[in-house]
């Protein structure tokens, strides 16, 4: 692959705006494991190897088992995720694949487990990792 732009160098203001979103996400009350499950699953759906590599390593550091990481792409058929995690993962997939919209069923299911503030934080987390995925893919970042 030919070298591509490095956004922090050519558009530092835009990159700083992304880092501000990341700072907000870090300040939320979201469970750190939930954050990593969102990041991994969105990155899988988007096909961002760089982010999958980074966030699976981060999840392991938090104590997430290999089994939970490996089964994440098939979470609906795995009984190792809590109902809250399944609600988050469904919402992650629908927000990531937004052209299909977020169904009332998925939103209502998530709202059973999370209050409005937590839902806002979850949605912002999903939006942020999707933006990072798009930056990584568009600029040709590679998993090492």
Which properties best describe this structure?
8 helices, 0% strand, CMD-like, AhpD-like
Topology:
Blueprint: H1 7-10, H2 12-27, H3 32-46, H4 49-61, H5 66-70, H6 83-96, H7 104-113, H8 116-138
GO molecular function: peroxiredoxin activity
Domain Carboxymuconolactone decarboxylase-like: 12-94
Organism: Flavobacterium circumlabens
Describe this structure in words.
The structure is a single chain. With 144 residues, the chain is mainly alpha-helical. It has a single domain, classed as AhpD-like (Up-down Bundle), CATH 1.20.1290.10. Helix content is 69%, strand content 0%. It has helices at residues 7-10, 12-27, 32-46, 49-61, 66-70, 83-96, 104-113, 116-138. Helix 3 (32-46) packs across helix 8 (116-138) and helix 6 (83-96) crosses helix 8. The chain is globular. The model has no long low-confidence stretch (mean pLDDT 97).
Total beta-strand segments:
0
Sheet with the most strands, sense and barrel status: none
Shape: globular
- What kind of assembly state do the chains in view correspond to? single chain
Mean pLDDT: 97
Number of domains: 1
């Amino acid at each position: 692959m030919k070298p591509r732009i490095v956004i922090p160098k050519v558009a530092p203001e835009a990159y700083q705006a992304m880092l501000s979103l990341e700072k907000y996400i870090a300040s939320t009350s979201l469970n750190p494991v939930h954050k990593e499950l969102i990041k991994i699953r969105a990155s899988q759906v988007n096909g961002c190897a760089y982010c999958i590599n980074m966030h699976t390593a981060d999840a392991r550091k938090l104590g997430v088992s290999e089994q939970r990481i490996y089964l994440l792409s098939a979470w609906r058929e795995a009984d190792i995720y809590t109902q809250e995690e399944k609600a988050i993962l469904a919402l992650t997939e629908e927000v990531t694949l937004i052209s299909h919209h977020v169904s009332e069923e998925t939103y209502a299911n998530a709202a059973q487990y999370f209050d409005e503030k937590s839902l806002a934080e979850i949605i912002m987390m999903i939006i942020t990792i999707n933006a990072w995925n798009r930056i990584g893919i568009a600029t040709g970042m590679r998993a090492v």
